[in-house]
Amino acid sequence: MLRPESPALSTISAPRSPTAPTDPSAPRLPVSINKPPDAESVEGHRQRELKWVSLMSAVPPSHARKSKKVKKLLYEGVPSSVRYLVWSHLMDSRGKSVPTVYGQLAKRERVAAYHQIERDAQQSAFDHPNLAPTQTSLLSLLQSYLCMVPDITYSKGLTLIAGHLLLLAPEEDAFWIFVTLMDAYLRPYFSPNTTQLEVDAALFCRALESNDAQVAKKILTEIGIGAVELCRPWFTTLFVDALPSEYVNRVWDFFLCEGLPLLIRVGLAVIQCCRRAILECKTEESLLRYITAPPPTWFPPTVDAFITVVMSAKVKDDDVRKQRVKMEAQIKRQTQQGPRLQTNFISLPKP
Predict the structure, then answer these.
(1) Are β-strands 9-12 and 32-35 bridged in parallel, bridged antiparallel, or unpaired?
(2) Burial class, 318, CB count within 10 angstroms (exposed 0-12 / middle 13-18 / buried 19+)
(3) Contacts of 41 (CB under 8 A, 6+ apart)
(4) What is the distance between the alpha carbons of residues 160 and 186, in angstroms, rounded to a whole number?
(5) What span, in angstroms and rounded, lies between the C-alpha atoms of 318 and 115?
(6) Residue 340 counted as domain residue
(7) Same domain assignment for residues 240 and 150
(8) 197 and 330 belong to one structural domain
(9) Whether residues 287 and 213 fall in one domain
(10) What's the CA gap between 93 and 53, in Å, rounded?
(11) Is the Cα torsion angle 265, 270, 276, 282 positive or negative in sign?
């Protein structure tokens, strides 16, 4: 079923101005304005809807992430009216869902992190006013997820990711997209064992040194920020804090298909947009503030322009994937840690 939204054509009206936010504690206000769609744009939107509906019927979810047709259509765009259906298809979340489970999980005893989730949800609604309507559903979704996957270490990033999903998808659909997204890409980031995050952060820093040695030296040597400290706020939130909401949607379109290499590309793009401020900053605190929650006016004025920056980064996706396997083994040997904690344990309610 298509969602009833009409196409929203957005631009950022304010000019780029790389100056520090005047009040980092203030809520981040919307930075885009919607223009009335003309007949041509409405027809183009409708044609993209139909293409996606047709493609999702023709390409099984199990093959979607490797499909050249899917990747080609991703570049053409994903209409907001079918976006959560596309995400569900890429993650095969409907195929992996279990009827009645979500309702049963929501009735279980509250998890230990429940009150922290409440506080984080309230803070997230203040920082991102567009997340405010998701509060009740958000608490239910994370309560259910943490009951089902008790080996997860809760952090605020889960609240931001789940909250963003709920902006687009009905609650139960959002839950199963969240479950499959976590299983496919993110669960190791929320494990007491930090090996995967260390590996991915190291890969990002390698890419940063290759793309911009001057900025890499400033961040990693002169300011002395560690790789994990640099990447954790991005990778564990999927850039929900760092990017305007409409940019997050577009980044997720590609991330659900490409995985880690796309996160590295987006991180490099954020660094590029903050470059002048980074080179001028003097403290670790100010640098982290710039790169984890940049003023929206520092970004290119359109989503497509930002994605162009993302895709122009010098990153070889296949090499990243191969290096990831080698570096994970290397870090395990260096730290003499045992096998990573089991991440496929799931506790489903009894029928």
Answers:
(1) antiparallel
(2) exposed
(3) 7, 9
(4) 13
(5) 41
(6) no
(7) no
(8) yes
(9) yes
(10) 16
(11) negative
Do 236 and 136 have their domain in common? Answer: no
- Identify the three-state secondary structure at position 333: helix
Give per-residue pLDDT as tens, 235-253: 999 999 999 999 999 999 9
CB atoms within 10 A of CB 164: 26
Task: Say whether pLDDT at 218 is over 60.
Answer: yes
Q: How far apart are CA 187 and CA 17, in angstroms?
A: 36
Residues in the chain: 351
Measured CA to CA, the distance from residue 198 to residue 85 in angstroms comes to 32
Please give the structure tokens belonging to residue 72. 């080609």
**Tokens 């259910």, located at residue:** 144
CATH code, 121:
1.10.8.270
Q: What percent of the chain has pLDDT over 70?
A: 83
The confidence score (pLDDT) of residue 23 equals 45
Are 141 and 154 contained in the same domain? yes
pLDDT in tens, 43-79: 878 899 999 999 999 999 999 999 999 999 999 999 9
Half-sphere exposure of 200 (CA within 13 A, CB side): 24
Residue 347: what pLDDT? 43
- Residue position matching structure tokens 């344990």: 345
Tell me the pLDDT band of 294, cut-offs 50, 70 and 90.
very high
For residue 197, give every residue at least 6 positions away whose Cβ sits within 8 Å of its Cβ, in sequence order, or none.
Answer: 188, 189, 228, 231, 232, 235, 236
How many whole angstroms separate alpha carbon 342 and alpha carbon 338? 11
> Rounded to whole angstroms, what are the CA distances from 132 to 115, 128, 138, 139, 312?
17, 8, 10, 12, 35
In terms of DSSP H, where are the helices of the chain? 39-58, 61-64, 68-76, 83-91, 93-96, 101-106, 114-127, 135-148, 156-168, 171-181, 195-211, 213-216, 227-235, 245-258, 260-273, 275-280, 284-292, 303-312, 317-335
CATH of the domain at 215: 1.10.472.80
Do 325 and 198 reside in the same domain of the chain? yes
